């Protein structure tokens, strides 16, 4: 039986989402094949180990333990005894290549993309720049840093108004789960939206909010030979697919499979796999598109390398509709992590 450690929480705006994902994995993993324990990272960055998630969480968060942020000797010993790590830390320090680098240095197998794939996908600006070189269609956008905003606010507002059409989406460049995102319909709302996003990141991206678009999502599974799930569509009963809708109210109309033609579905699935390959992803990702039926237009929205993994999350829902249930999906991801690790072990490290 393989020993699996689920790492969750983190010093991230998506901390609570990560806890929900971890609980779902713990409850649904195949216990005939895997023995789980957990490491929780609190909002201050302190690490705690436990047999069960309930031992080290309270009110949907990892308990504060008041220790140094470096893992204790006990946590390190538990970590190195694991056969596989499932790092389900969404956002900062978990989805951006940070923890992946730590696990690579420790030579431990882990679920998901490596340092490069994680880092370039987490930064929405770098993600767009790389996809642009591959000719993958995207929305118009601009970006800037916190220091640029503080030193040249008027110029940035002028650029936004000259180059982009309202409505706009203002986002932190390095976060997910719709944290810090605002939909802006007029220039009067722009500055407050930027201030909101700057609470969560020092780089901001502003994208054109496309009208009359269906949001279509695809789940990807695999390493060198990735497979795409059926397409699913999202129609939130809110202004946009925000944090509360995704994780609290589930107030959406999810259509799986999406009500689109077979040709469009296949095109989107192929584009999803191409995006996955271009961005050097492994294990899993959810790729989101916009589709306009009247214009026959398909546009990449974004890719997430550690998408939400709760019971109401689209990533497992899409695979369930494609013939892989939740428990088997977790097993596949763990097996893919071992395959990737074994491939790395075959490399020569001396010359």
Characterization of this structure:
With 351 residues, this protein is of the alpha+beta class. 37% of the residues lie in helices and 24% in strands. The protein starts with a strand and ends in a 6-residue tail after the last helix. The mean pLDDT is 92.
What is the secondary structure topology, with strand pairs?
Blueprint: E1 2-9, H1 15-28, E2 34-41, E3 47-50, H2 53-56, E4 57-58, E5 61-62, H3 73-80, E6 84-87, H4 98-105, H5 115-122, H6 124-133, E7 141-145, H7 146-151, H8 153-163, E8 168-172, E9 182-184, H9 190-198, E10 203-208, E11 214-222, E12 227-228, E13 232-236, H10 243-249, E14 252-255, H11 262-278, E15 283-292, E16 297-304, H12 314-320, H13 326-345
Parallel strand pairs: 1-2, 1-6
Antiparallel strand pairs: 2-3, 4-5, 7-10, 8-9, 8-10, 11-12, 11-13, 11-15, 13-14, 15-16
Summarize the structure.
This protein has three domains: 109 residues, Rossmann fold, CATH 3.40.50.20; 150 residues, ATP-grasp fold, B domain (D-amino Acid Aminotransferase, Chain A, domain 1, 2-Layer Sandwich); 68 residues, 2-Layer Sandwich (Dna Ligase, domain 1).
Q: Give the overall form.
A: globular
Please give the CATH class of the largest domain: Alpha Beta
CATH architecture of the largest domain: 2-Layer Sandwich
User: Can you tell me the CATH topology of the largest domain?
Assistant: D-amino Acid Aminotransferase, Chain A, domain 1
Query: Which quaternary structure do these chains form?
Result: single chain
Per DSSP E runs of 2 or more residues, the count of β-strands stands at: 16
Beta-strand percentage?
15-25%
> Spans with pLDDT under 50 lasting ≥5 residues?
none
Q: Which sequence of SSEs, written as H and E, runs from N to C? A: EHEEHEEHEHHHEHHEEHEEEEHEHEEHH
Average pLDDT rating? 92
Q: How many alpha or pi helices?
A: 13
Rg (CA only):
20 Å
